[in-house]
Structure formats: C-alpha cells, structure tokens
Amino acid sequence: MEPVYPKAPLEEPKTVTGQVHEQPQVEQQRLLPPTYDQATAAPAQTSGPGVTATGTAIPAVTTGPSTTQHTVIVVPGSAYGPEPQDVQCPYCHNYTRTRVSYRPNSRTHLIALLLCLFQLWCCVCLPYCISSCMNTNHYCGMCDQYLGTYLRK
C-alpha cells in the first residue's frame, strides 16, 4: 500500500534575498498589543493637550467619576422548613439538597419535664426521639456548611 501523504512538501518555501523591510521602533510598538499591566492599569490623566513627534496636537484625556457596581445578597431569615430542601449553597455554589439534623430546644426539654412531673417515666425520652419536637438545622449536602435553622414554634 502506498503512503497517502507525499514525502516532500508540495511547494518550496519562498525566500526573499536582499530586501529586508524594517519598521521604525515607534511603528512596531504601535502594532503590538498592550501588555497585561498596560491593559488593566487606569488610563492616565492629563491636564492639557499634548503634542506628538510630528507636531500635531492630541486632545486632552480626562476621566469622569468612576462608577462602581455593588451586589447585595439578601438571605431571608426563615427560608428553610422542617424537611430537606433543594437550594444553591452560598459557599460552594452547587445546587444540592440540604442535609438536616435535629437539635432539642427549650420546648423539647419542657415537654420532657412535664412528662416527668406526671410520672410518665417511660415516655420521658419520646420528645427527644420525635423530630417535630426539635429544631431543624440545615447543612449543605456537598460542602457540609451550616445554612440555617428552622425554629419550631
């Protein structure tokens, strides 16, 4: 089987002998793109018109007041409910379902104390086992950061 590609280039490279065009240094600098530092730096402020090497006037460059844009993120106080929810985590920015854990609150302890006072010893642990008697803490399912609490009323 013969090779598909030729062994030698199809066209010979053209070389120009004797003529070398060199551009002046000023024109070369004008053709080059600016460096990163030049592109990100603030523009220079001048007080009056300047003059180029050829004697033509350059209009003055003035900068107006800079406008900055502020982004305000408002996090609602009670956005979380008693069940896991699908949210965008403000820490890792992933869309995920929250992981919940239940923590006893003062109402849980009060119910257990009342059960103890009524001498229902076998039922004292029930408020600590029932999730509807405790607060619900929500955590990110990806980065495990605390997101908020649903307070039982």
UniProtKB/TrEMBL annotation:
- Chain residue ranges for the region called Disordered: 1-25, 39-64
Q: Which UniProt keywords apply?
A: Membrane, Metal-binding, Transmembrane, Transmembrane helix, Zinc
Q: Does the keyword Zinc-finger apply?
A: no
Q: Name one Pfam family in it.
A: zf-LITAF-like
Q: Where are the transmembrane segments?
A: 110-130
Keyword Membrane in annotation = yes
- Give the UniProt subcellular location, in the record's own words: Endosome membrane; Late endosome membrane; Lysosome membrane
What Gene Ontology molecular function terms does this protein carry? zinc ion binding
Per UniProt, residues of the LITAF domain are 69-152
- Record's compositionally biased regions (Polar residues): 16-25, 43-55
Membrane topology note: Peripheral membrane protein
Q: Name one GO cellular component term.
A: late endosome membrane
**Parts forming coiled coils:** none
Chief place of localization? membrane
Describe the family membership recorded for this protein in Swiss-Prot or TrEMBL.
Belongs to the CDIP1/LITAF family.
What name does UniProt use for this protein?
Lipopolysaccharide-induced tumor necrosis factor-alpha factor homolog
